[in-house]
Amino acid sequence: MGRNVRTAFFVAVLFLVIGTVDFVTTSSIKVTVLYFLPLFIAAYYYSTMAGALVSIASACVNLLVGYLEIGRVSGVSVANGVVLLGSCLVIVQFVRAIKKKDAAIRRNLAEKETIIRDIHHRMKNQMSSLLSLVRLSDGGGQLLSEVESRIHAYYALYDSLCYRSDSQTRIHFGDYVRRLCDNVIKSMRNESVSVDLSVRGFDFEYDHRYAINVGLVLNELVTNSMKYAFVSRSSGRIEIEGAIDTCGALSIAYFDDGPGFEYAAEPVPPSMGMIIVRSLVAQMNGSLAYDNERGSRYSFVFPAIEAAH
Q1: How far is C-alpha 17 from the geometric centre of its chain's CA atoms?
Q2: Cα separation, 260 vs 267, whole angstroms
Q3: E strands, 47-154, in order
Q4: What is the pTM of this model?
Q5: Tens digit of pLDDT for each residue in 189-244?
Q6: Residues 286 and 186 grouped into a single domain
Q7: Contact 58, 83 (CB under 8 A)
């Protein structure tokens, strides 16, 4: 139901109630028609000229009705007309003041959104420049590929904020996750291995401050899968599924069909990738569980954003 329809429905119900009370107490709806109706009309047509015309016309009608009823303009009719005129004009000025403040707030928000969008665009360009420098570097091999994928996680985020979202703080998470994972697979793919990526869920928007952390976690997991899960194989499978429950908590399940590893017996110190994963999960007050039955399966739960602060 649109805003105008809701407003019209509310006004109709209000007038029905007022008119019923008016009729029951006075056996007419004169008060409703001569007083309440003009006040609402004056408030709706908030410009000074329109509101003044409505209030003046209502006051004149009030005087005319009083004259027709008793054959003269009584002091009560004049007083009622003056009160009606003053009330209408007060409502007009009150509504105008609210409209002006609302317009000023909207202008300020528009200016801030423009500034934020420009900042995001500059960050995207800086990430693009860094990616270009990394790709132009000689040597480095797999190390540079990992650095490139981490930078690309930021690049994809700011690209989503600039061009793929109407919001300056939230992005469509599914699009971001697919682009991020596709990039890691593309940059680290061995020509002899075919990797099937399945991304399910994530059909929601997510705050960009936390999306980048989750994106970096997934970046490291896909990187580890590409490095270790599909060795001496011609094909592999990666499955990622994400959902938000009714409380706002984000759940992510990550799976690859590689040989897995003994999580508790992981070498100390752990790899840089797992250090990053654990650090980011802890930073978001999340939880991590691992299962190596028929592959590597990671389960993450991140609390609602308000609770993660």
Answers
A1: 38
A2: 14
A3: none
A4: 0.58
A5: 766 778 888 888 888 888 877 888 888 888 888 888 888 777 777 788 889 999 88
A6: yes
A7: no
